[in-house]
Amino acid sequence: MTDPWLVIGLGNPGPRYETTRHNIGQLVSDELTDRRNERFRQHKAGARVAETRLRPGGPRMIVAKLNCFMNVSGAPTAALAKFYSVPTENIIVIHDELDIPYDTIKVKIGGGHGGHNGVRDIARALTTPDFLRVRVGIGRPPGHRDVSDWVLSPFNNEEHKTLGNLVSDAADAVEQLVNDGLIATQQRFHSAT
Asked: Which domain holds residue 78?
C-alpha cells in the first residue's frame, strides 16, 4: 500500500458546467478535498490537483480535476499517472453514469466505456481499460429528451434534495476503495440497491 493513488473527478471546465450532471465527478473531488481542508493547485499536466492522505501514514492520494473538456480527459490523466508514478490499478475515475438510476453508486474495475467519452479517452491514453471507476448514477433523461442536453443540464429541484448525500456517498466509495479494496466497496454499495 505504498503506491500513491490518483483520483480523477471527471467534468467540464468553467462556470457554465459546474453544477451539471456531467460534472458529478468534480463535485466528488471537491468533497474529498473539503473533508481534509485541502485546496487545489494548478499542475503542468493540465489539471488542478490536491495531495492528501486518508489517514496519517496512509497512502498518498492525488485528487485531480482536469482543465480540459470531458472528451479529451485521457492525455492529462496519463500525464498525471506518469508524473506521480501511479500504477493503473491505483487510478480511480469518478464519472456520471446514465445507465444507473439517480442516487445510486456502483464501483468496478475495467470493462467497456458504455458510451462515456471521458472514460473511453482515458482507456485509450492509458492503453488499458483496467482502472477503477466510481460510477455515479444520473439516470436516463425522461421521455425523448436528448442525452447530451440531459447530461449538460443542472440537477433539478427534486435531485437537489439528495445531491449532497449522493456526492458524499461517492466520496465514501473512493475512500473505501483506497482503504479496503474493490470487493469490500462493492459489497457495501451494491448491496444497498
From this structure: 5-190
